[in-house]
Amino acid sequence: MGLTEFPDDCLPPEGQFDSRESLLASINAWAAPRGYAFTTGKSTRDPRSGRRTVIFACDRGGRPGAHTSKDQKLTERQRSTSSRITGCQFSINAKESLDKSYWYIRHRPGEEKSVHNHGPSLHITAHPAHRALSSTDQSAIGNLSSAGIAPKDIRTYMRQSSQTAQGATQQDIYNCIAQRRRELLAGQSTMHALANELDNEGFQSRIQLDHDGRVTAVLFAHPASLGYLNTYPELLLLDCTYKTNKYKMPLLDIIGVDACQRSFCIAFAFLGGEDEDGYIWALNQLQSIYELYDIRQALVILTDRCLACIKAISRCFPASKSLLCTWHANKAVLSYCKPAFDREDEDSNSNERWAEFFGYWHSILGSKDETFDQQVEELEKRFVPRYVKEVSYIRETWLDPYKEKLVKAWVDQDAHFGNVATSRVEGIHALLKSHLKKSTLDLFEAWRAIKQALLNQLAELQANQSRQHIRTPIELSGTLYSTIRGWVSHEALRQVAKQHKRLNEKDLPSCTGSFTKSHGLPCAHTLQSLIEEDLPLRLQHFHTHWRLRRDNKEIGQVLIEPRRRLDQLVATSRISQSSTQREPSTFEAIESALRPKAPSTCSKCHQQGHIMTSRKCPLRYSDMLQRATAAIAGTAQTAAIAGTAQTAAVLETITVAVTTETTENLRYDDPRAIYRRYVKARDCWYKAQPRGSLKTNQAYRKAMGLPLRYSKTEYDWCLDWKQMSRSCGSRQWTKEEMMAVKTIGNYYSTIADEDDVARQLSLLQARVEPTDWAQEREVLERYRATLRAPNRTKVLTEAQKLNLPDAQDLRPTQDFLQAVSSINPSFTDYWVNKLEDEAATASPGWKDRFPNGIKISEIFERSHRAKKVSSNRGTFAATFQGKGEDHDGLKDKKAPKDKPKCVCDERHFYSECQYLNDAAKQADWTPDQSISQRIKKRLEEDPSLQQRVNRILQRSREHRDKTKASESQVRGIAFAQKTEEPRKRTTFSTSKAPYPLRDSFILDSGSDTHICNNRDRFATFIPTKEPEELFAGDGHLQILGYGRVFIRIDEEALFQLEDVAFVPSFHTNVASLDLFLAKGYNWNPASGTVTDKHGTYICTSVRHFRQPVLEYNELRVMAQTDNGQQGNATAFSSSHPRPPQEATAETWHRRLGHLNAPALENLVQNAQGIKIKGPIKIECEACSLGKARRIVSRRRPHTQAPRPFWRVYIDIFSLHISYKVTY
């Protein structure tokens, strides 16, 4: 467009239009070439006549800054965006006629209504009104997206095919696709949308939920696929693929094979995992679909050696024969056995022995009944004992348990129709992933992609069968096939033709019937008899599998998305998380290692066989010799320009342009001279980089903002005779040289001469020269702004060199601890306490020994990384939800056991029965006389039952009396507990007793370390040098050290525990059962006895408060007064009420879940014991942030500089004040 100001005819002419839409289209068509656009500003309706009046205003109208936040902290949390609003009042009136048959335009009075307060835009794409997509375009974009077309390709297509979408940006395409997806979801979650769409599309679907309503598995099958299955039910192929959805759920593909030997998808299942339960659920659901459609059971089911899948097949399809994939078996043998032959490097015949070994394996798989045992014996004689491990693997892993599923002698007894490998399932995996595109889809989007692949497959299958129905293979036109053409597939006929060719063999072996059994086709012997009798083939000779012609929910519960499964290969995988590519198998890694590598090519002399740093390279020291020659001649002079690191790199790049060429007198625009200037500029940039940084050509181009690659067309342009080829010598130009000429040659074409460059550099150097005051101020601002930034260490070092007060002594340490207090409070508390202890001691040189600002940040980074992975001592969790009395059990008890049936016919324990136990009776309970009589009769008839009930009730009473006695002792005892080096003395009162086993040692299986909360119990103690944490439930507790503790296991004996963690805030003492077992000690949960590995008795654990206790100590409650004297714990009751609590309004606001001011006033009036100091005024940052609205902008980012000088000027003007850096 290129307008610098609006033309005089900026206002659209007055006139009338048929509709409001046509009026808006007309005025926007008028505004587009003039650099602005109209939007609906205000719309009103006359209450009497019903006429509408609309004000169409400039789209840059409105109040500028109306949506900005006054809160500075809130503004910092918002996205960095911009606004096109300028408050422009340019507008027109549009009114509806009295009879509402047309609209007309009228200009508004006032000069401000006809004049813009801004300049025209450079292009129509700056205005969303001119980029609006029509309904036709939106429909086309939605259809293309549903077909799997990438958004970038959709934009290309729309620009080529639609005139109304010429101004659409890539973001507009993304928005349209997202809107289409929201329309498909119809306001539902993805799982509800999936369930509804499966039902609406007619899919047979099954969804598995857990007890929380979370989806754990989904199975679905298209009705057309089930129709194919009803026609061809003989074969099933099962295999799982991965990386198809964001929940990491394996996708089980259930595949069938039709008469044309084409694969068709029967059903798909997203499983919760590859365990036996998951396969059983999927196959049971498939079995229910079989029953619903009256489908015959499969003859053969083919899988890989997945034990869970094999067991599920034998349970759900017992009548079907299960076979194993021979391809997977071959690759498994290759992966396991081939390394043993590769390790024999000194033996040149290892490859030949491996080929012989692998040949024996194949001959065993293809052997007949009478030769199988003989082949196995020959294998053992040939390779045992040298390769006994490999031969044992073949026998124990494959042949002994699965020879009926692998060896040809047994496999050919069932009709597999030539399918003994699952390779066709791998092809289906590739087909699906070509439609899925990425592995981060939810189940709804994954189902949509699978549906498109499935519909295309079904259409192709139908077309293929239709073609074979009307076509006849030319080579099979004899009378033998005359009656079956159009009824049997071409593949079956070609298989029969191969058997026909066997009749030409001299010695045809006797018929075993294995070919007819396995393939369902007539063998050569059958064909021979038909030919002799001059009879044609009939349909009865072919299995029904080969024939072309044959007779042929709403979910009320709320659904939750499946849990995302953890992928154990993510940590070691080099493949992107969103990629659908599978991980390489072991045999692929071995085969790739065996492939010969291509010889290396030198990047200097371009010869093969060595690299640029090799001694074989004739040009290895050419750069060094050239620089030495230039230094001696004294001809290479480069001016050093001061500025920031970014400015210096740009200025030095320009400075090298004025250096004098020393080797040859070349023209300034010669490609060789241009490349030399490029290399010198790059060398200057290399010298400016810190030691150890990446210094490559691509890194230099990226830092300078240069293009990283060019197209083949641009390289061809460089090789043109008029450009670079005329300067080429005996060798070809390299890509690096062509990139340099393409880049710098274009940039330096704008420079008038070398003197002009020198003058411009002088002006730039004077402009960016800072003062010392500006240098200190800029470093101080950078230091304060980067307390938690990655480059904090670098900025702190610069600040210390300038002797800034904020960077001296331990001030950086205190600033850093304050900055990370919100990230890791325990780290801050540990080091602040340590700092205060050192300051209180005031030993000589303690400030030098204490970590400075750089050291403390390094300690924090190490501890933060260790916390994410694992602690150096193995972070442990004391959960008190361990194995307990069921420690020896191996079953995972996911659900509680059913309670036994009582004599009252209810399911509960005898001690819980209100008819038997008086203590279990409730106040309002009334017994049923008939039940009481029935219980009495049963107990009289069975004396043993009477004795068992009495014994259980007696134990229940003893346990209840013992528990009451222990709890009464706990409540009445309190004494002061000694602490080591108390720092602060506090008084506390509590109305709730602490954990009764706080001073005892319990035996727990949920902890992987010993824990003690009393410092006085330690015989030896070593404080931790760095903070360590104990994970207890969802909380983190500080570990202050480790040491040795003795526990009293009886009145005289002591038991020693090593490496006990001191955690004063932990609520009990723990002896780890896992460490006991690791040391050889055993614990019997039934009797509670602890014995050593020789069976010698050590001690007995006694149960207190439902926990096994090794050392039981009665509870001691600590209470201290203000002066440090011993006192008693205060218990509050109705006779001794708690004193009123007094705090400010903000404190009560935070305590009570951020209540507002009116609620606090009502709380003071209606609740006892609450006092508020001062006025009730709340200024809470969290509440302010919670009420903030997020503003999203769709403006494109600022364009980059097109030329070096233009970019240098813009960057210099926008830089902050910097200080001098010398390179």
From TrEMBL:
Residues 60-82, 879-899, 1126-1145 are annotated as: Disordered. InterPro entries: GAG-pre-integrase_dom, MULE_transposase_dom, PolX-like_BBD, Zinc_finger_SWIM. It comes from the Eukaryota. Residues 1001-1081 form the Retrovirus-related Pol polyprotein from transposon TNT 1-94-like beta-barrel domain. Residues 68-79, 883-899 have a biased composition (Basic and acidic residues). Residues 236-331 form the MULE transposase domain. Residues 1141-1187 form the GAG-pre-integrase domain. Residues 1126-1136 have a biased composition (Polar residues). Transmembrane segments: none annotated. Pfam families: gag_pre-integrs, MULE, Pol_BBD. This is MULE transposase domain-containing protein.
